[in-house]
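Onboarding guide, step 5: your first structure request.
Type a short instruction followed by the sequence, for example:

Predict the 3D structure of this protein.
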Amino acid sequence: MSDFGRILKKLRQNHNMTQEQLAKSINMTKGAVSNYELGERTPPPDVLIALARVFGVSVDYLLGVGDKRKMLDVSGLSNDEIQFLQLAIKLLKKHHK
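The system replies with structure tokens like these:
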């Protein structure tokens, strides 16, 4: 099993989803999801993006090349609101060191 396959399976299980449920959410077949998890096939870029959106993670995280597990959707927020969130995250990280 590839890093991607292990990560995908773990994310799916952590979200209490079956392969069939995940497949439906990204308009794929259960067999395709199984092949991805087993490392028998590599998903194309559009499927990687869809999977990242379903689980709220970066594509880098899915591929095992980054540690950004969670992504924040800041669409619709003003620049001031985004800056506020960035500052809050920075302060929380500093507090937890």
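Each response can be followed by summary notes, for example: Residues 79-95 form the longest helix (17 residues).
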